[in-house]
Queue: 4 jobs
Job 1
Amino acid sequence: MGGHFGNLERVRHVITYSLSPFEQKAFPNYFTKGIPNLWRRFRAQVFRVAPPFVVAYVVYAWGNQEFERLKRKNPADFENDE
């Protein structure tokens, strides 16, 4: 009944293969394929992702500038005060 931990139940018709971590390369083709692929993916998506961020930044900067402008008093309103 049962077995050691990890083989507690027999699963039929499922085949698993594994490779020892010592036989694998940690970063295969990292510089030859990884970085060019990163650049290709960046170029493909930059015009889809960047415009909303640019618009949001422009609106944010305009809002802060407008807030600072409206926060100040108008000196012309106080010319006749003594």
Job 2
Amino acid sequence: MDLRVKVAMARGHQKIQSQQKNAKKQAEAKKAKGHDQKTAAKAALVFTCGVCKSQMPDPKTFKQHFESKHPKVPLPPELVDVEA
């Protein structure tokens, strides 16, 4: 009877050590991974439409958006020289 209690306690200790080791391993893997795709994609959206507040990654897409979605509004000066 006494032997079973010691085995259970040893396994409990091993379990805790294993969980701590796994948590450390997961944290290192997450740190090595760096950033996630969602954050990177959000950071890439640098142009914002002044009319509808949509975000675009580059001026070409921004001009195409502006011409198709807001044809009656005059083109902003930063998009005049951009080729679509």
Job 3
Amino acid sequence: MWKKISKSIANLLCLKSNRLRHRNQVLSETVHDANLDVQRVSSHVCLEDSRPCMCNHSIKNLESVENGIAIEHSVEANGSFAHAVINMIGMLLGLGQLSTPYALERGGWASAFMLIGLGIICAFTSYLLGKCLEMNPKSRSFRDIGQHAFGTKGRVLAVTLLCMEIFTALLSYTISLHDNLIKVLSGMQINVPWAKLSSSQLLTLIAVLIALPSLWLRKLSSLSYLSSAGIFLSLLMFTSVPLTAIFGDVTPNHKIPVLQLHNIPAISGLYIFSYAGHIVFPDLYKGMKDPSKFTKVSIVSFTIVTTLYTTLAFLGAKLFGPEVSPQITLSMPPHLVVTKIALWATVLTPMTKYALELAPLAIQLDHKLPDSMSSKSKMIIRGGVCSFIVITILVLALSVPYFEYVLSLTGSLVSVAICVILPCAFYTKICWGQISKPLIVLNLSLITFGFLLGIVGTISSSKLLLQSLRRRGHHSA
């Protein structure tokens, strides 16, 4: 039993490494010649120190086309159905779990139909990505599918969305770090006369500085430990709410409004963000021993995740009512041990993410620097550049400390494109002459729905964010 569990965890961690490898592969298009990029990523490694991945995989050869040149790649494909389900669930669980209770309370219990409906749509678009990969075995990534569908423009669009995903994810994690750190260390006062920063801002700065050494790791394969820590902390956060209902003094007796239509545009971004993960699903597909089961994997995984999100949303909204925070951990009774554990998990999670999210850039810097440069010099340059990026994100996070609006804006601006619009567009373009008219109508309808949802959500969340910034400016004045 334990052997099976440990094997599942090992496969999940390996897929997290594959996600970093995929991001590295996509970003490399902007800084490298395509042939060098193919040569570098053709052999599979767990991150960058050229060690073979220790997952049990068989090897099969596929061809990939870069600039019209056919090149063979070795691709691992021995993942079982159960492992694929665990991997997909692990990809989908993240920051979204913190905000679903807030979104449900603001939108009303009827908005749960939107949460469930978006889960069904995203499961369908995951299926479409699998069909795109089935139509063209040469495609190995989200970028490849985009290039197959729309050429260079499709590839550039995938790269752009990936960069936006990395930046906004780190921004959201840093805001979450700031908000939860205040609760964890409530009452602690730090005063630095020459620094015009509040105690909470100084505490966040210290926490980020503690995380910075992870950006200077020489062997990026060490990031697998950070990945495992992040997964464990996410599970802790998820289980904290039901444990609060069981062991706490909080009774789930608050009444949830039926529907608050005026809040739907803003919370739609929070809902769609919870299902963001499609950009790495091709890696999961290619890692399966039997890719024909990918559709079943999508159905099972999204059913489980949608059920968990919906349950957590109703439980959190019933427990805390109108006082529920955009991050559920901030609403939990501070005296409970489970609350302290959840808060620390929420604080430590962002600190494990900086090196993981910036690993693609770090790898690119290493490959771009001259071979004659010493490894120590490369480490200094890589660490310095990544540290500058993190400090920049920290400054922005402290300037815009509105978790719910930033997360909603990310969902409406980035996630809806990754989860809904592009998979439908890619599939329709690639398979135009081979699919029925009803399916074409369905895909075009989903593309239209995605655009409308993205536009309305982006406008609404941007307006709320600007209003909050104005109010903050007036108070500070």
Job 4
Amino acid sequence: MARIVLERFLQEKEQAIPSKTLINSMLRDPSQIPDGVLANQVYQCTVNDCCYGPLVDCIKHAIGHEHEVLLREMLLEKNLSFIAEDQLRAKGYDKTPDFILEVPVAVEGHIIHWIESKASFGDESSHQAYLQDQFWSYWNRFGPGLVIYWYGFIEELDCHRERGILLKDCFPTDIVTLRHSMAQH
């Protein structure tokens, strides 16, 4: 709502459509808004936004980080060797999954090279955006992988297994490692 009000205010004041860059800048820092009352109202809207405000962003980020730490602990517990996202970024990679397995594993008969943690529910809209913006890029660079939607997902979205993107709602319990399969023979 604050965005719409701010856009209208600037449009009337400048007699032109304001740029997205200007709007975003003013929403992040309402002190840039020339009208003090409107600046305060935009600030209040932003702070009290229960869906998209900065407080909600901080909470989402913290929950996401917590689940990545949990996943890291599970990988270590299973003695799986991996490279974490921060290590990959330090090597110059721009789009990276949370973890790349140094030795691939099999989950439900599918080879997995990388794991992405999503501390959210996998709905159709967000999953399609993630496929386009992240998952297919990971697949192109690193091969097949696993996405864990910790809060569940719509079952019909798990339709790319054969192409190399597996969805789960928890850490898999049936991981087959090279070491494990060699020990059985």
